Amino acid sequence: xxxxxxxxGMRPTGNIHLGNYFGALENWVGLQxxxxxxxxxxxxxxxxxxxADTSKIRDNTLQLMADYLACGLDPDRSVIFxxxxxxxxxxxxxxxxxxxxxxxxxxxxxxxxxxxxxxDKDIMTYGFLGYPCLMSxxxxxxxxxxxxVGEDQVPHLEMTREIARRVNHLYHTDVFPEPAPLLxxxxxxxxTDGRKMSKSYGNTIAFSDTPQEVDAxxxxxxxxxxxxxxxxxxxxxxxxxxxxxxxxxSDEVEEIGSMCREGRIGCVQCKRKLARKLADFHGPIxxxxxxxxxxxxxxxxxxxxxxxxxxxxxEKTMKExxxxxxxxxxxxx
Length: 333
Fold this sequence. Notes:
This protein is mainly alpha-helical. The chain has helices at about 20-30, 45-50, 55-70, 90-100, 100-105, 110-115, 125-130, 130-140, 155-170, 210-220, 240-250, 255-260, 265-295, 295-325, and strands at about 5-10, 35-40, 80, 145-150, 180-185. It has a 3-stranded parallel beta sheet with strand order 1-2-3. Strands 4-5 form a two-stranded parallel ribbon. The protein folds into 2 domains: about 5-190 and about 295-325, Rossmann fold (3-Layer(aba) Sandwich), CATH 3.40.50.620; about 210-290, Tyrosyl-Transfer RNA Synthetase.
């Protein structure tokens, strides 16, 4: 079948948590039967803000791959690979950096935001400024038609579209399609403390967490602060536990909400109901990732096989772009 191509990836900066899953990975799993999918582990991107301490990147890479597979990404239906295994990404990055105006990079929303907010790290580096070129390389080298993103990420993808247009214009070619955003409707889960679920806040539930750890995190969740006694009327719309019930207890969420508002269920009982529902979802994925990580040699082989598949198509595009630019003497098509 002549399917359109989709590409996306995550940085190996820690274990996938429920926010990552419902924000992106659940959608990726569903795309596998509709598109020609490339999903990668962006280890070079991890260096843009984490270059000073690289001690965990290799371990995080294996952990992330185990999460990918345990959550449902299938190497028989998708190309799942490691960015740094496909060295052509770096060559494409170099070529794109030659034609990308400095002003484009400096106006990138993420660049401005992180420079202002990440005061604990020195990120005034060429690599951080130029990461949109590397991101564009990741996308364009596989001629991706779509990149699954949320609405807040569309401006980042527009940079890639502008770079594709500039290359095609400068070198009188049509080698790069302009990738379009594949807007995704993501389920939003708060962290256990009610804030956005984020590793930096320490409020996540990860698939690496043991069942005992998950249970403890559920029981410590923030609930309605105005509710003192079990019989007090509750306000589920402001309760973190109820936000989780909307996703994991869809068959009885309305009843749970009514019981809370009427003071017929206490917060502890409500948390226990959630813990059982969450265990049914989290448990099998945790067990699968644990099994995968018990044989890192096999897991590494799966990554290598995926990277070899990615390299085949990356080389085809690289030959085209070298010829369009006029670089090299041995890339006859």
